[in-house]
């Protein structure tokens, strides 16, 4: 009899332990579900914070004005505190790399080709001489790029030599002495071998 009571007591205790373990499992599962929900919510908060950071970085970048090329600021068109809209000209930038545009007559282009050496004389610098090279010959006369192209069918019977822009690269390191808009005299050595061409 005592053994049966002891067995019943042991069985009841075991069942109680099972129920307790099941309750603990249920609590653990509920806690896990809460953690998962909180994790998803925190992940959403992190994503929102990242999006806000990216937007703030874009806004910060939009407050900086950068030039497309290296150079010096020219005339400022606006002052501090002025309101501007998209497309407003703020300033002009004088590039560090300078070149010369020589508007040659079409009758002077027969022997002109890229790579020919050029001597440049600058009156504003007491006749100082620079060296350079023909870099590019325009594919059309300067008049073709003007706002109003001249019409030669208006009774002009005199042939007028057109001007062709020729771009000249300056070789000298002290080109910083030159200023945009200066007048110069160029002498293109048409008898020389263009740079980059080997002897035949």
From TrEMBL:
SUPFAM superfamilies per UniProt: HlyD-like secretion proteins
Name of encoding gene: yiaV_2
UniProt-recorded name of the protein: Inner membrane protein yiaV
Biological processes per GO annotation: transmembrane transport
Organism: Enterobacter agglomerans
Domain YknX-like beta-barrel positions: 101-188
InterPro entries given in the database record: Beta-barrel_YknX, MFP
Superkingdom of the source species: Bacteria
